């Protein structure tokens, strides 16, 4: 079967943390946006390890994306 890294092209070398943990990457991944979990496409949100606070904080990326969606779609202040 081989290693999982060979089967998943995005994890070449086993990097599941989406790059370097530098100060710049902490705040500017994947793009420099005030709300990094939102996209220009209405109703489309990012919740991957590429968004703050990064891959080492499991679940928080999804939490922040869900919070942004609740605020945008339903007007809920979370």
Brief characterization of the structure:
32% of the residues lie in helices and 0% in strands. It is an all-alpha fold.
Write a structural description.
There is one protein chain. With 78 residues, the chain is an all-alpha fold. The chain has one domain. The protein is 32% helix and 0% strand. The protein contains three helices and no strands. The model has no long low-confidence stretch (mean pLDDT 74).
Strand percent estimate: under 5%
The low-confidence parts are none
**Tally of discrete structural domains:** 1
> Which range best describes the helical content: under 10%, 10-25%, 25-40%, 40-55%, 55-70% or over 70%?
25-40%
**Total strand count, please?**
0
Mean pLDDT: 74
Which class of secondary structure composition applies to the elements? mainly alpha
H/E element string? HHH
Count of runs of 4 or more consecutive helical residues? 3
Largest sheet: none
State the end-to-end CA separation.
45 Å
Morphology: globular
**Radius of gyration from the alpha-carbon trace, in angstroms:** 14 Å
